[in-house]
């Protein structure tokens, strides 16, 4: 299974203090400021971590991944009993979990 891109998200209840904390954690400002309450850091060539102010999801992580062989990945995860709760297809053949 080849994973091409990973986006790991952290929802926080209070964005401004969280932004300051993550800037200290990463030792730099965000690489991308998406909106007034969402920022992203590129941590590898194809790996990103984003922080978003969202009190309703705070404390619950989320992630987005893309694979070129989505069906093979689902079969591999299913064989291990590791299927995610939800899946959503977006932009052609890419799906979000």
CATH topology: 2,3-Dihydroxybiphenyl 1,2-Dioxygenase, domain 1
- Profile the largest sheet: 5 strands, mixed
Number of structural units classed as domains: 1
Please name the fourth-level CATH homologous superfamily: 2,3-Dihydroxybiphenyl 1,2-Dioxygenase, domain 1
Task: Describe this structure as you would to a colleague.
- The structure is a single chain.
- With 97 residues, the protein is an alpha+beta fold.
- It has one domain (3-96): 2,3-Dihydroxybiphenyl 1,2-Dioxygenase, domain 1.
- Helix content is 23%, strand content 41%.
- It has 2 helices and 7 strands.
- The protein has helices spanning 15-26, 70-79; strands spanning 3-12, 32-35, 38-44, 47-53, 62-67, 88-90, 94-96.
- The strands form 2 sheets. Strands 2-3-4-1-5 form a 5-stranded mixed beta sheet. Strands 6-7 form a two-stranded antiparallel ribbon.
- A hairpin with a 3-residue loop joins strand 6 and strand 7 (94-96).
- The chain is globular and about 40 Å long.
- The chain starts with a strand and ends with a strand.
- The model is unreliable at 92-97 (pLDDT under 50).
Any descriptors?
two-stranded antiparallel sheet; 2,3-Dihydroxybiphenyl 1,2-Dioxygenase, domain 1; five-stranded mixed sheet; globular; alpha+beta; 97 residues
Provide a quick synopsis of the model.
The protein is an alpha+beta fold. Helices cover 23% and strands 41% of the residues. Residues 92-97 have low confidence and may be disordered.
């Amino acid at each position: 299974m080849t994973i091409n891109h990973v986006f790991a998200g952290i929802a926080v209840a209070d964005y401004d203090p969280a932004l300051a904390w993550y800037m200290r954690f990463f030792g730099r400002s965000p690489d991308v400021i998406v909106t007034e309450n969402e920022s992203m850091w590129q941590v590898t060539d194809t790996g990103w971590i984003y922080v978003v102010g969202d009190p309703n999801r705070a404390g619950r992580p989320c992630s987005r991944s893309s694979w070129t062989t989505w069906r093979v990945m689902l079969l591999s995860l299913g064989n291990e009993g590791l299927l995610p709760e939800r899946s959503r297809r977006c932009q052609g053949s890419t799906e979000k979990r």
